[in-house]
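User
Take a look at the entry that follows and flag anything odd:
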Amino acid sequence: MAPMQLASRHRTTVAVVLLAGAAVFIAVALSQWLFGVGLDPRDDTLRRAAGIGFTDTARDTLFSVVPVVLPALAAFLAPDTRPGRVIGRLTRLLYVAYLVIGVLLALSAARYGFDDARQLAEEGQVFIDTRAAVERLLLDAVWLTLAGIGLVFARWQRTRERSSTPEGHDED
């Protein structure tokens, strides 16, 4: 018995749900980073990007499996019809948003981590030393590389989709 395949409409629905889930993760991470200011006057975007003790969940939200894998799964599931092409475009758009936000978040965290003098002056101690900042930057680079691979995969899916679509002529 052949494995049951999802109908085009169901594949589209599942792909849209996956994209929506990834978009929510990316939007929430952006909100946590830029607008998650607490009551503490020391709570700013650099400290939140670095993930030190305030509203520090933006890094955990963005640099996780869900926003990296869901768009790739959506691109994989998208049918070869018009809704599938739209899903492919949305997938690429989500990956670009992830990469832009991720690079800004990683660079902000690194900037805070490499500024030991500012931390010492403002906090009275160094929360994130240079070694920890380099480690976080390397891990962030891995997540961003995975998202870049997802973007390439989404483009490859589109190329594969175009090459598998008949051009309207018969072969003899």
Remarks:
- Residues 8-162 form one domain.
- The mean pLDDT is 79.
